[in-house]
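Input.
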Amino acid sequence: MDTILIVDDDVAISKLLSDALTEEGFAVRKAYSGTEALMAVAAGQPDLILLDRMLPGLSGEEVLPSLQGIPVIIVSARADTMEKVDLLLGGAADYITKPFRVEELIARVRVALRDRRQPQEETRLSVGGIVLDRNLHTVSFGEKSAKLTRTESAIAGILMNNRDRVMAKLTLLELIAQDTPDCTEDSLKVHVHNLRRKLREITGRDCIVAVWGIGFRFVSAENAE
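Output.
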């Protein structure tokens, strides 16, 4: 049985989540402040944490860095896009905005737990000295590393798995649809450009080649120019 830690100072919301999760077969623990959350994790690591941002004492943002290795879904009334991006890049597995439908939150919990159970060999991909961690959304080469967005990580995984093959733009869009359903051909170019820059910064070479009129091809750092 998976254990979910609910961290929310709103007693009514905490009870709502607790009742719904218990009915779905989860074990539930509760904390009502950032400090209590850290104490609860120290006492026994849960399988997933639902973390409110606005907490007494330590805020959700302050607690998040101490929760590495545990899937964290941010639950907040604040809906600013850039704040969401910062928290997702900072380690959160997902972000859901209040008010929410309980059914959607349960689905997000199950997805986060499913992703956590993926075998390590499936989440790490190594090609020509470049290592992609699709769970942490990072790419490394030697002692250098770079943080990727979720979309960049998905693109890198596809290109690396198809090294030296030209991947058409429309094929890339179809394959990353699960990670970024709203990605368009124009925004794909931006994502690839940013990924290419990050790879160049850590390897010193261009690892993604644009094939005019068709798509993109990945070459290992040793063979890149």
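The chain has a mean pLDDT of 86.
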